[in-house]
Amino acid sequence: MATIRIGNGAGFAGDNLDAPRLLCEVGRLDYLTLEYLAELTMSILAHQKNRDPEAGYITDFCTVAKSLLPSLQSQPALRIITNAGGINPAGCVRSLAAILSQAGLDELPLASVTGDDLMEDLDRHLADGEPFTHLDTNQPLGDLRSLVVSANAYLGAGGIVEALDQGARIVVTGRVADASLAVGPVLHEFAWNHGDWDRLAAATVAGHLIECGAQVTGGYYADWTEEMSLADVGYPIAEISDDASLLITKPSETGGAVTTATVAEQLVYEIGDPSGYLTPDVVADFANVRLTAQGADEVRVEGARGRPAPDRYKVSLAYEDGYMATGMLLVCGAAAESKARRSAAMILERVHRAGFELARTNVEVLGSGDSVPGIWPHQESATEVLLRMSVHDPSRDAVERWAREIAPLITAGPPGIAGYAGRRPQPQRVLAYWPTTIARERVAARVVVRTAKEWLR
């Protein structure tokens, strides 16, 4: 029975830079996936691309790519799939091509998968009757259209399959759904019928379990103890076979653990309805999935079922929404919590006297229970807390005035104020998130495969 090994070396932008290299060196991988994108990440990348048209992709991937050069040279069958392209997949591939060219890998085939970016045709879609209704409020996009800065559909595995079929060794995508990074290699290798929903569900479970990196191998594990080493945590590997059987494991002699408990936690992470997990490739039913420990750091996963894929793609849309800033102060001494809350009130009173009414404010007194309200006991007797304030307003001037009212507490506030030596909080432009959908037939993946030297021409 044919089996492939897919390892995932990144679960978000900013994940461990060494994990991909270590996975490739000791993981005996057929495919390495690197999953970098989240809704917040897309907004950050949109900010960057607005400032620089050549930006808008995950620059960490270029650092990772340099560390992977020895593996690419010594393992000619190794392929890499990543959504590091973000808002600008072509720019990401060009940067990657330059790195490969300098290492003498000019002939390495690289693919960009685009088609997720809806900005160019957004007005046409609206004119054709796509309201881009908010998933939570059911409100149409309406007048917010003029404020939209990015809109990206969550593509499925189709573009990845096409790129691999054309011989690409590294595939760089835009906003492809997380689990689809693993579904693509499976469909390419096994040539499953795209209507074989149960097998697609099994591949989706594989992708979902490894997409967050070390979360399935002990990271963020609820029952973690100090005996479970995470300094050298191993990143996950999915072994999936042509019959859709699935095993989750990690490289031997690495930290962390793969148990039925760590796998179960990741299985239900961010899925909503476990009997109807919506992806671009399949509606996966996790309700009857069975987990069985097979060996040390090996868990067999069985029982996923699938139904036809949704007729609409999810869309991550971001729009301009004013300004925000966050500031912090350390408050020490007796009655630290009440002093901190009164200090926050003083700041807002002074902003009001200056003629500004902030649209939104949030006051947290960390150390008194505000980080997880209602979970831990309220610490009224705390003698050291951190006051964290965040504000938001359409007016930059209003946010700027609030930022200027923090430092005066040093000499014109209660005793015990510290931690003010850093830079004054700076107003930041806010891109708000608008979750919505678009009809599937309106979106199509576009695949370009070229050698590294051809990408540089």
Would you mind describing this structure in some detail?
- This protein is 29% helix and 25% strand.
- With 457 residues, the protein is α+β, with helices and mostly antiparallel strands.
- The chain folds into 2 domains: 3-116 and 154-310, no CATH class; 320-433, Alpha-Beta Plaits.
- The strands form 3 sheets. Strands 11-12-8-7-1-2-3-6-4-19 form a 10-stranded mixed sheet, sandwiched between helices. Strands 5, 14, 15, 16, 17 and 18 form a 6-stranded antiparallel sheet that branches.
- A hairpin with a 2-residue loop joins strand 11 (290-295) and strand 12.
- The model has no long low-confidence stretch (mean pLDDT 95).
Features:
single chain; 457 residues; alpha+beta; 29% helix; 2 domains
Write the layout of secondary structure elements.
Blueprint: E1 3-8, H1 19-26, E2 31-34, H2 39-51, H3 60-67, H4 69-74, E3 79-82, H5 89-102, E4 109-114, H6 122-127, E5 148-153, H7 158-165, E6 170-173, H8 180-190, H9 197-210, E7 237-241, E8 246-249, H10 260-267, E9 277-278, E10 283-285, E11 290-295, E12 298-302, E13 305-307, E14 312-332, H11 336-353, E15 360-366, E16 384-393, H12 396-404, H13 409-412, E17 417-418, E18 428-439, E19 446-451, H14 452-455
Parallel strand pairs: 1-2, 2-3, 3-6, 4-6
Antiparallel strand pairs: 1-7, 4-19, 5-14, 7-8, 8-12, 9-10, 10-13, 11-12, 14-16, 14-17, 14-18, 15-16
Helix pairs in contact: 3-5, 7-8, 8-9
